[in-house]
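DEPOSITED CHAIN:
***
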Amino acid sequence: MLLSMRRRTFRIRLQIAIKYRFMSHQSDHSFVKVFFALWPTATERSQLDAWQKPLQHLCGGRAMRGETLHNTLVFIGDVEQSRLEALRLAALEVSAACFELSFDEARYWGHNHIVYAAPGHVPQHLAQLVSALEQCLTQHRFKFDQREYKPHVTLLRNAHRTDVPKIGNPLPRSGWAELTPPLPEMHPVRWQIQDFALVQSMRQDGLASYRVLARFPLMLSSG
């Protein structure tokens, strides 16, 4: 009987060990969706938030929640949970200077019905930061979304311009974007960029939600 109890105890322990190793293996290979972004202060965010009401009156659509407003630098997508620390360490290698980013234009993308805030001028330090991030990610073998960088902050989704010209004349090469009248001038909003952030994208109650995982300070500009 003692031998039988020992065998039974051994089987239980073995099952527990196998279950623990399986759960650990699953945990190590779980994925999170992440990106690098400029994450504004509450004051900077509220200033852009004030653009939404007049633009929504003109274009309709759904206003983004104030706490979600940000400017993406590099979108990475799904990354294994076990590689997050390596990603954080890689970002620490990025060397770039502080700068000011001024959003002074409201624009509309017809292909995805988005109204967004954009800078009329892209600061050189911003372009250098994005380039440094992309080089660092490539060096450490992280895949990311590679496309022409266009800084913007999404303000409205599912928006529709009602003042686009009717079909009649041939379209220019750039498509409807060239024919669409500009949106009204908005009061410029200036962000003082002193760091950038690694952010996790999640879904909560069917809505996009973001969590800042780490921040990376920029150098004071000698200018």
